[in-house]
Prior knowledge:
The protein is of the alpha+beta class and 408 residues long. The chain has helices at residues 13-24, 40-43, 66-75, 78-87, 107-120, 173-179, 199-203, 239-245, 268-281, 297-306, 320-331, 387-403; strands at 4-9, 29-33, 53-54, 62-64, 92-94, 99-102, 124-127, 131-137, 140-145, 150-158, 188-190, 194-195, 208-217, 220-232, 235-237, 256-261, 333-336, 339-340, 348-350, 371-373, 380-382. The mean pLDDT is 94.
Amino acid sequence: MGPYGAAIVGAGASGLAAAITAARSGVRVLLLEAAEKPGRRLLATGNGRCNLSNLHISIQNYHGDSSLAAPLLEAWPGQRIRDWFQELGLLTRADGQGRLYPCSLQAAAVLRALLSACQHFGVDILCGFSVAEIRRAADGFQLTAQDGRQVQAERCLLAGGGAASPKLSAGSSYELAKSLGHTVTKLSPSLVGLRTPGRITRSLKGLRCRARAALCQGSRELAAESGEVIFGNGSVSGICVMNLSARLRGLPGGHISLRLDLAEEMTSAQLKAYLEDVREHFPARPAWELFDGLLNLRVGQELAKSLGWPHERGIGALSSSELAQAVKLLKGFSLPVEGPLGWENAQCTAGGIPLNQVEIPTLQSRRTPGLYLSGELLDLDGDCGGFNLHWAWATGITAGGALAGGKS
């Protein structure tokens, strides 16, 4: 089959964007996908609504080789991605935080727009083609599937995605990149919940509440973010916690904790005054109902019980020192962190191919001329809020323009 002007390995967000861009410029493009259908992982993003970008793109929202990525991100603000999708016939809406969604709030609409564009511009899509080997050939590259089928192309783009969500992403492109001279930094799950062992999280399983979540090492606060936290069986998640998971990379082990301020809008003094007021006006209530007017009822009652007060005790019997203990708990509910949850729970991959191994802005390999790399394969991961899909589009379109020998 072939030869093609460009072979793109991976029909996810980055690969589809690259294929459209290259084919629009007249390149004969073959898009290879190991799964039976393209874009499966894209359909699962944003709980099926596809938070495809953000109007407030900032290097501060990225981790890894962020300084090297800065020129490319500056060249691709959120509005430019929005305009690119509008050219494909897909209109988007922005929420109050700048997160961009398709107007239909359907990830399927995003995928349909991309596949329709591929068809319009003549992209050949071959699914069920799991690339096992890529070799340099005299006229470009020879790509061999696991079942022995072969294709040839003048240039090649690896856009196969990362190691996160293994049921939706093969993650095999790392080995292909290594075979072509690249190295890969240590990979770890990112945008994922944290493992927090202990009885208290088991008793809170399935409950949600708002908090300021801080990742700490010993007494030092490393990073913090406010939002809804979700308790699991031995874990804590929620967007604010998932964003903190990216900060685990490179930390020496031990003494890592997650500290939750469950009354972030009150100072410790204000909180104590509030609790004293509850004690004065409702002395006959059980002590384990002390937090009922402040927190999710079950969360508050489980936390009050964790203080070890006798079940039959009333709020009026609580001493000032016991109220101070309650304040300390709510303002600094600390949970030990063993590490991130596994790959199956992760939204993206931390680590990857260092950005100093590709040319910016073309994304051509510095190790193998004619080879390009994009998306999650590269050592850059973003926060929740559309930042990772934005990186996929920006690098895919950029690489697609380079495959065509021009600018995106």
